[in-house]
Amino acid sequence: MTGTQAPVTAAAGSAPDRGGEGRPGRGKALRYIAGRLLTSLLSLVAVMFTAFFLFRILPGDPVRAMTEGRSVSVEQMEELRRQFGLDKPLPQQFVDYCLGLLRFDLGVSYQYRVPVVELIADRLWPTVLLSGTGTLLAALLGLWLGTRSAWRRGSVSDRVNSGVALTLWSVPTFWFGLILIVLLASGADLFPTGGMMTPGTTGAVAVTLDVAHHMVLPVATMVAVLYAQYLMIMRSSLLDEMGGDYLVTARAKGLRDALVLRRHAVPNALLPAVTLIFLNIGLVASGAILVETVFSWPGLGTLFYEALSVPDLPLVQALFIFFSAAVILMNLVADLVYPLLDPRVRS
Amino acid sequence: MSTTEPAATPEPRPAPRSPGPVDGPEGATASPRRLARQRRRRALARFWRDYRANRAGLFGLAGLALFVLVALAAPWLVQPADLSVTRAPGLPYQPPSLDYPLGTDNFGRSVLDLVIWGSRVSLLVGFLATLVSVTLGALIGIIAGHFGGATGTVLMRVTDWFLVLPTLVLAIALATVLSRSVFTIILAIGVTAWPTTARLVRAQTLAVEARPYIERARALGGGHLHIMMRHVLPNVMPLVLAQTTLLVASSIIMESTLAFLGLGDPTTVSWGGVLQDARNAGAVSSGVWWYLLPPGLAIALVALSFTLCGRALEGVLNPRLRDRS
Amino acid sequence: MVVRQTPSRPRSSRWTALGAAVLAFVVGSLPTAAAAESADGAPTTLTLAVSQPVDSLSPFLAQRAISTNIHRLVYDYLTNYDAETNEPIGAIAESWEVSEDQLTWTFHLRDGLEWSDGEPLTADDVAWTYTTMMEDEAAATANGNFVANFEKVTAPDDATVVVKLAEPQATMLALDVPILPRHVWENVDDFASHNNDQDFPVVGSGPFVLTGYEPNRSITLEANPDYWRGAPGFDRIVFRYYNDQDAMVEALRKGEVSLVSQLTPAQADALAGESGITVNDASGKRFMGFTINPGARTQDGDPIGDGHPALRDRDVRRAITMAIDKEAIVERVYGGYAEAAEGYIPSRYGDYHWTPAGDERLAFDPEAANALLDEAGYERGEDGVRVSPDGERLSLRLHVHNDRPDYVQTGQFVEEWLTDIGVEVQGEYVDPGKIGDALTSGEYDLIFTGWAVNPDPDYVLGIHTCDALPVEPGTMRSDSYFCNEDYDELYRRQIAEYDPQERANLVKEMQQILYEEAVVNVLVYPNTLEAYRSDQIASIQVQPDPGGNIWGQDGYWSFWSAQPADAAGSSSGVSGALIAGIAAGVVVVGAGVVFLVVRHRSATAEDRE
Fold it and tell me: What does the record list as GO biological process (chain C) (predicted)?
């Protein structure tokens, strides 16, 4: 997850550059929206093709993987191959795949023998719950600390804030999770080591408490590693704003600093951070692979990772499309919403 | 920062052509060589003075130097026999002692030796993966920015398309498809990390090409290659360098992640690989903390060093950011 | 008519005693148990940590170990395996006999068997299950191999099943096929898409009833109080999912689960000293080793792949095996939790296990291996790597599964040992998919392998016959491209040999051939390491006894026999830590929300001004 995201810096940022492409005037608004929609659609189609071919070159034979260690005959393996639709030639498989996509039919998982759509739907909400909570908390914490840091630039608390954030950002996610497990789950026995809930728990309140208890460590891991980006982006954009003329004016008018900060600077400085949040929401679907693996969280990430080793082609393809589509969608939303949010663009 | 970053960045000032240790000859445009050398030296001195003012950057630089030294000196610090599994020097899972300051692993090898030796692979992967992605990103970014039009659009669409593919998912898929080796990991990281650089470079290229002297160079008959190599590249380099430093940090983390997910080559000693071995051996639950802690700390320290350096560099090279950090 | 043994119950006296004790316990303590339950509020639960996803709960389709293990618990089979000796004993069938021509088997069923929905279990259910697998390809997906040799299965009356075979088949008492209730399953339209996971409780006949399944979260079984052998000790078995081995061990430490299997040696050592936890160090059911490419080819003899030609030389193969120190693998890779192996069938199957006589042994001896290679004309080159008489360098690939840490470590040892005898090794540590690809395409030199051996060894012997070679490159049964006429002849004789002792002798002869040819080289039998909470489980039956395992048995003995300890509460309840943790979380979230709301309010207010 920390993978190649490097936006702990002011200049980096994987956001689509809205500076280069002309921002829409009122008249161009429709064309802008249509253009964005078309681009997103093209990306989606490209992703669908990629999903098919990328995973067809994965090594391994799903049939062999599923029958590993079993006393099966060659006939049984052929029967399984037929059930999976792998006995057809590749072009035929591709046509079937495309036709299936048109009907929103993503196939049946080899491992679970249920439609992959059901599997994804079943695993979606644990992932959204974990990853969404993590992203939200990371954003809130990062924005809050970033604001404080910028306001007291150069102070001890600024240095400590930035230092801690960057250090945590440098820690590999999975390792941090393991250390948390060793310290807090198995060591101090404060939290469960993994899973999402204790089986057999019943009653809405008990279930909620139980899930919340299970979520603490994985969410803490995500937040620790993620919040630095928000802190840094908030800090630098707020510093930008603080140099703005209108702030100087406001201060000259005698408004108290706290009021200036709250009423003027922060709302404007929030914009880049909001964009980042949108983009990260797109990554929520795929963002938790590591955390889910370490904490045995029954989400999409673990589903994908397991499926890859078979390879459970329909499931891997569908998840790949799903993960990418989430990013595409959120990019699109960010593109469309941004002009509405930014008062400078509006005027 | 995505919003204001691209077009607005550096105003035309005599950019420090050869920042830091990378002293390229490509910046030599002035005719009298000595004058150029002097100017370069002055720029370097100014650069160092600015950089020195950033204390975090100095920490980062020191940490980086330390790790590079360790990696270079590893063949003298660790005997190959100490890494042999059949002739391991100690007993399995010995806790830290005078003989083995960081204890031993499941074969009885010293964890300190593994961490020292692992720095070589981890740094190598970090650097090479970054080289791959930065080269790719810079190339595509400059071309897309310079030519614009259909070429630029197509290149940027491809970049966009890569951007939406989930990085880790794509890297895992690539590492599974290709054969198990350090170079696979390098390729997997490099191929997935370039689009960010490409976007950054393209934006910077657009900004540079809008300057009057490029117009002049074009009017004087400068070809595409000339403009891209002589004018755009030197001006884009500083930002790319800062980006590079940051990418090394994430590449090292990515390497450990892929190794942890079991996609690395188990016979090469790398920090991520050691962590995976530790986890496979059940170190987390059997209390063998000395097997788990050092490699993770090493990764964190190196990544932090690179990040601090990258931020300091960026602050120095990008005047708009200078007064912020 | 040859009348075979007719064991009406487990033969061993200890088992009879235990069975009686269980029965006495169940009958005698019924009122008490009920009272204890109502006081406690919770039935006794045995929780087991698992990681493998269930592929299908339909016995016609299930391939994965977890699914077949669950089927063992919820469906009865025609026969079972004795808990102590692994020998076939009766289950649904109480006795059986074979015709003179050895082609007709008549099974007599136990009286009064019932499905969990109260319907009687009759011979008709058995015949229907087998016949469906013979006639419907989808129904044969999982277990078709068991009925491939069946000509006809009939049920002349409710208590008799008659199976007519095409060829004699010595494995008739080892048919690992769950018997299904015809009255439920004949309504299924398409066996290829029916997963048996919609209607709970699932109608079965085993000691447990499948009552709940949440994919990758949990599987719940409830005790079948009417099971003919007696009700199980625990009221409920829960399979709980963890996808991390360390998380499982932690869960065991905290009492979240009662049983964890497949421990690493380090984990077993760490758990061994802890109170309330018992570690079970079971003899291995698996063998682990590597095969050497003897020149991969199809059944017609067309060569495939690119195996190193020098490996067709038996001396080279034998020298390679002599360079490997199996004792060192046992000590250093398995921490002593394994047994150095020679024969193909693990020692836990005493009847079939074979060891070479003193002068046949290819003992660890690098000098002898070097001498053997020198003699055979493989001279060392300048770089220390040997060159074959044909001028080929002895540089070999070694394919190792990267998902098995013990394989990876052993691979690293083998690399270094082979270097000592002048063989260069290129380690290819790749995922199992690639291992399979390398094997089927013949593009390997040395390749790791490992199989769990069933009480009946027929299948693992069959994968080294000439018949198992591919007809054309691609799908095949062979695990080694081994093809030897003497071996094949012995294989044909053992499957037709109904006398267990004679058959065992034939199986031993086959193993001797495998050993001498040094194509299939077994290195160790790794122990199965498991741990359970002795404060939750008072006693549990291993199979075989002594030295057997708990999870993955060839019977249902462990879960059926397990007795809850006095205070078997696996539910720890809501702890103070939980409340503290949640409170902290709520505070953080609350603070963040308040902060943002305040900011947002003031921002919008400002805008309006």
Answer: peptide transport
